[in-house]
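Task: sequence design from structure.
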């Protein structure tokens, strides 16, 4: 029950983070995604640095060579994914982008089968992949069709996220291997190390970017807060019920994003979400449920 609650809060925070990231990119079309990301990750980096005060271990420095590549690889691919997400959200509503992130399952399957060669998929997994593709097709027909470039940014986002997840899994495994015992301590330490590194990279880049008014920081701050909060709840969920079940619960973020989108549109925030008919809304909800079912099958 605790794991289910933690995972559900993580999914809600992720859905809210996507709403606020969409708000940031649409209100500041004159600012590059890198400019928005740097400001958001400076906030996350500062919060993560505070978190390191409670999770730090000297084993990190003494075994830095062991954890270096999954740490840096995870950060690189994560920033790649976030940049592509911001570019997608400039043209596509979050209620459609977020469920499509379930395509990450197919990318992860490809990585495991073709690159890592550490997985053998049976009928449930292939059924999950089929449901993912069917859900994608349904979402593409639930409202205006996605343009080719928008869909390409979503696919690139999924490639970045899936590659980052693979690196982070290896990072947590290596942290445990050097003596950071327990899934919760190693996961939290891995998360704080990753986002502190993101903040350090942002600090190095931001002096080279055009200066922006304080309102830009106020716009990206909610995204930074809810994203980092989601990661902490997600890792706590992993420590409670494991990564497979945690990711299944996390997949509900698409369903939550669609419901949030409907509420925003009804409240008049058409800058963020277009108004759609009840039929289209039901199609989107069905597609999101299919993505959750796909995640469940792939997790078996």
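Answer:
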């Amino acid at each position: 029950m605790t794991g289910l609650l933690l995972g559900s809060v993580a999914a809600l925070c992720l859905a809210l983070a996507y709403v606020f990231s969409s708000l940031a990119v649409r209100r500041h079309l004159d600012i590059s995604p890198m400019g928005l990301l740097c400001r958001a990750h400076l906030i996350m980096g500062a919060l993560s640095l505070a978190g390191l005060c409670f999770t730090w271990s000297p084993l990190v420095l003494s075994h830095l060579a062991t954890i270096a590549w999954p740490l840096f690889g995870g950060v690189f691919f994560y920033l790649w994914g976030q940049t592509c997400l911001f570019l997608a959200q400039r043209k596509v509503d979050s209620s459609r982008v977020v469920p499509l992130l379930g395509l990450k399952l197919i990318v992860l399957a490809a990585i495991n089968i073709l690159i890592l060669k550490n997985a053998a998929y049976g009928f449930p997994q292939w059924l999950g992949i089929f449901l993912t593709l069917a859900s994608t097709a349904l979402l593409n027909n639930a409202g205006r069709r996605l343009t080719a470039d928008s869909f390409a940014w979503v696919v690139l986002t999924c490639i970045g996220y899936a590659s980052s997840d693979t690196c982070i899994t290896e990072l947590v495994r290596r942290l445990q291997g050097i003596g950071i015992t327990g899934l919760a301590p190693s996961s939290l330490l891995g998360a704080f190390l990753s986002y502190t590194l993101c903040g350090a990279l942002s600090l190095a880049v931001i002096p080279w970017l055009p200066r922006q008014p304080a309102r830009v920081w106020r716009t990206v701050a909610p995204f930074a807060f809810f994203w980092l909060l989601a990661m902490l709840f997600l890792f706590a969920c992993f420590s409670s019920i494991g990564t497979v079940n945690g990711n299944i619960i996390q997949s509900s973020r698409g369903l939550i994003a669609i419901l949030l989108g409907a509420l925003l549109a009804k409240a008049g925030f058409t800058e963020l979400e277009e108004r759609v008919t009840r039929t289209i809304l039901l199609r989107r909800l069905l597609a999101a449920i299919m993505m959750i079912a796909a995640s469940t099958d792939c997790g078996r």
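The chain has one domain: 2-298.
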